[in-house]
Recover the amino acids of this structure.
């Protein structure tokens, strides 16, 4: 008599050690091999888009902090740039340099977290996280000197930034930039040629480049699949065309490539920081003169920047009143998650955790 | 297979709607320990003190970070603001092995049945800390259509820590408060 | 630098191939009739000179008389971009053809528009609510909710 088997549905529920937030998956298994996967989201849906229609433009700035809470200032920057494009506000030089320095420090901090939690999923319990957290505390201390907060900053304003830095900021920043390459070398020495990392991530979870473009992936996920598309080069915003940096690209699109792209991007961010500090203007205005109850002209805008996780865009529709008519956020991680099913079919449950960790999501942004 | 999945989704929706109807008023805070001094029995005092002292210095916290406050919770557990010195060495993932639930972040109605299920799975004695403005009262998202205005609608809360997000020093102060509360507990409550 | 194509030029070219499809156009965007949306999108994706292979953003807006679905298209090869829009009139029975088979990006974004605005996309393989639970009454992002 032949033995009959049935596929088994496993629920990896919203509270789980290796989900990066409240994310739920219904996985269909045949033994231990995955044959189907269905992500279920919405456990952190707070209704930001609806709440934003009832508040003025500047009151929506703290909401953007809570979108991708690992990289809060970058969200602030994207929103400020979108409103400046809509209302035609020009930003002074010194504020532009501040914005570049902050954006690159935020990129370093986000990639540190991405790599640290990826290694946590691989099984190196909390050790890499604590190493990366040591550097993140330095970045967070610099931000605390800047605006007093550690996680949700609310520092950008329309037309510039909100306040100046104290005296002790510059020596601390220069020390951080001088020491960072040594720490990145330390991580590479410990991790990049590690046997377990290579065996578990090379060739796992491949995303081919034509599928990556078709699903609209962006950021390290797209660049690891071999497509050289970085908004800082292709569509330069702010003053990025004055700096000299490379765009790292992977070859195959597996988990190891996504990890290497993040490490390389950290090095390039340090390069941009060195150039920005050298060119920083000593005196200048910090913010253009913008009314508190801003009334942009009737129209719409789609403003996008290269956030650490991908292309972050704000689609704003204005009808000349003090609140936006429509506030829509194009978040990179919801779109990067589209191909999770294709990347994991045929692998086992342990590989699913690694593939999911290498995409590096943050639920605040996906659910909004 | 398709029919099974749809039924699971409908069952989940029913659980959410039932919990929404039941949670229209907040659960009262368990604060009758404040009058404990007057009612304490002399014979059990030393045993109580030793047991409470041991319990408060070795709580096992449950990692329940939902949103941004989770990052400050991990920061408190990291090497700079060490939380191991208060006895909370390992953050447990399974509710059956934990006794302190630190609920950090915004709670939505879709997630609420899961929180209640996890709270029910924890063995007695158990305590709950509400960390962050969103857990205390709904925070900035209070008027939204899908946010629970404070987790004390779903589980009884012992310590509230305000802040958006509270600094690691704030979380450590809250942990000190809950240790003081556990010290005033009595083993005759759990017989 | 990504060049934003002028709406009027693209409307003229499309008017030769699909007469009557383009309803309006201005400096930035072209508005297309909802029945011919799929054909126009396929033409914009596959023709040399346009080659829009990347759908950056899909959003739905509720102007009280009509609903508008906005597509922001980008071409990675030629480095230019375009805004494509379509409208559906009325408050009930809003039907727009889905572009899932052209750009898979539309998978979650169309489900979000269905969940929060109530627009039905025909041809989508799995049109279910994304953020809210089954049986939630109403569509929260509409202007007349609450």
């Amino acid at each position: 008599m032949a033995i009959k088997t049935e596929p088994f549905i496993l629920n990896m529920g919203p509270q789980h050690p290796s989900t990066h937030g409240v994310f739920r998956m219904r996985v269909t298994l045949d033994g231990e091999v995955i044959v189907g996967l269905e992500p279920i989201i919405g456990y952190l849906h707070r209704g930001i888009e609806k709440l934003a229609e009832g508040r003025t433009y500047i009151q929506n700035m703290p909401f953007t902090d809570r979108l991708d809470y690992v990289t809060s200032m970058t969200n602030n920057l994207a929103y400020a740039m979108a409103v400046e494009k809509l209302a035609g506000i020009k930003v002074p030089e010194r504020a532009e340099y501040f914005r570049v320095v902050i954006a690159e420090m935020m990129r370093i901090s986000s990639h540190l977290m991405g790599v640290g939690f990826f290694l946590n999923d691989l099984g190196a319990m909390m050790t890499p996280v604590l190493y990366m957290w040591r550097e993140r505390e330095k970045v967070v201390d610099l931000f605390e000197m800047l605006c007093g907060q550690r996680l949700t900053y609310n520092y950008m304003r329309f037309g510039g930034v909100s306040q100046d830095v104290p005296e002790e900021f510059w020596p601390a920043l220069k020390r951080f930039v001088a020491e960072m390459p040594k720490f990145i070398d330390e991580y590479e020495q410990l991790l990049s040629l590690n046997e377990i990392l290579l065996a578990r991530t090379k060739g796992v979870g491949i995303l081919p480049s034509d599928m990556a473009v078709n699903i609209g992936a962006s950021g390290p996920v797209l660049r690891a699949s071999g497509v050289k598309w970085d908004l800082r080069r292709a569509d330069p915003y702010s003053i990025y065309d004055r700096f000299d940096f490379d765009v790292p690209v992977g070859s195959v699109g597996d988990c190891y490539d996504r990890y290497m792209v993040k490490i390389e991007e950290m090095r390039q961010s340090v390069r941009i920081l060195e150039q920005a500090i050298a060119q920083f203007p000593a005196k200048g205005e910090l913010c253009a003169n913008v009314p508190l109850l801003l009334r942009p002209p009737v129209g719409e805008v789609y403003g996008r920047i290269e956030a650490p996780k991908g292309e972050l865009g704000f689609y704003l529709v204005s009808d000349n009143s003090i609140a936006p008519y429509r506030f829509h956020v194009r978040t990179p991680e919801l779109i990067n998650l589209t191909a999770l099913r294709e990347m994991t079919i045929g692998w086992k449950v342990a590989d699913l955790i690694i593939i999911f960790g290498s995409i590096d999501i943050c639920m605040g942004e996906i659910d909004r | 297979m398709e029919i099974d999945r749809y039924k699971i989704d409908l069952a989940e929706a029913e659980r959410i709607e039932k919990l929404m109807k039941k949670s229209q008023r907040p659960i009262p805070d368990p604060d009758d320990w404040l009058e404990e001094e007057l009612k304490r029995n002399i014979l059990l005092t030393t045993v109580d003190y030793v047991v409470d002292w041991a319990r408060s210095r070795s709580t096992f916290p449950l990692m329940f970070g939902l949103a941004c406050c989770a990052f400050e919770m991990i920061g408190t557990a990291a090497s700079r603001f060490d939380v191991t010195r208060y006895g909370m060495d390992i953050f447990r993932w399974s509710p059956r092995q934990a006794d302190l639930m630190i609920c950090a972040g915004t709670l939505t109605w879709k997630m609420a049945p899961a929180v209640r299920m996890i709270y029910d799975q924890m063995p007695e004695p158990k305590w709950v800390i509400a960390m962050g403005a969103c857990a205390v009262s709904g925070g900035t998202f209070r008027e939204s259509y899908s946010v629970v205005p404070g987790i004390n609608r779903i589980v009884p809360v012992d310590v509230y820590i305000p802040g958006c997000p509270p600094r690691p020093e704030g979380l450590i102060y809250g942990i000190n408060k809950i240790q003081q509360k556990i010290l005033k507990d009595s083993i005759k409550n759990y017989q | 630098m990504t060049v934003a194509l002028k709406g009027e030029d693209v409307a003229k070219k499309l008017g030769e191939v699909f007469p009557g499809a383009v309803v309006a156009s201005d400096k930035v965007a072209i508005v297309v009739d909802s029945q011919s949306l799929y054909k126009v999108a396929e033409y914009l994706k596959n023709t040399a000179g346009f080659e829009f292979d990347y759908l950056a953003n899909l959003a739905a807006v509720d102007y009280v008389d009509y609903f508008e679905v906005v597509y922001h298209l980008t071409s990675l090869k030629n480095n230019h971009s375009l805004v494509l829009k379509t409208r559906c009139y009325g408050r009930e029975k809003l039907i727009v053809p889905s572009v899932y088979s052209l750009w898979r990006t539309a998978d979650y974004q169309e489900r979000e528009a269905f969940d929060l605005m109530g627009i039905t996309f025909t041809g989508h393989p799995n049109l279910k609510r994304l953020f809210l639970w089954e049986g939630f009454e109403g569509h929260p992002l509409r202007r007349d909710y609450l």
Summary: Residues 34 and 346 of chain A are 6 Å apart (CA to CA). The interface with chain B takes residues 7, 9, 13-17, 21-22, 26, 28, 38, 42-48, 50-51, 62-63, 66, 69-70, 129-130, 133-134, 137, 150-152, 363-364 of chain A (CB under 8 Å). The longest helix of chain A spans residues 93-122.
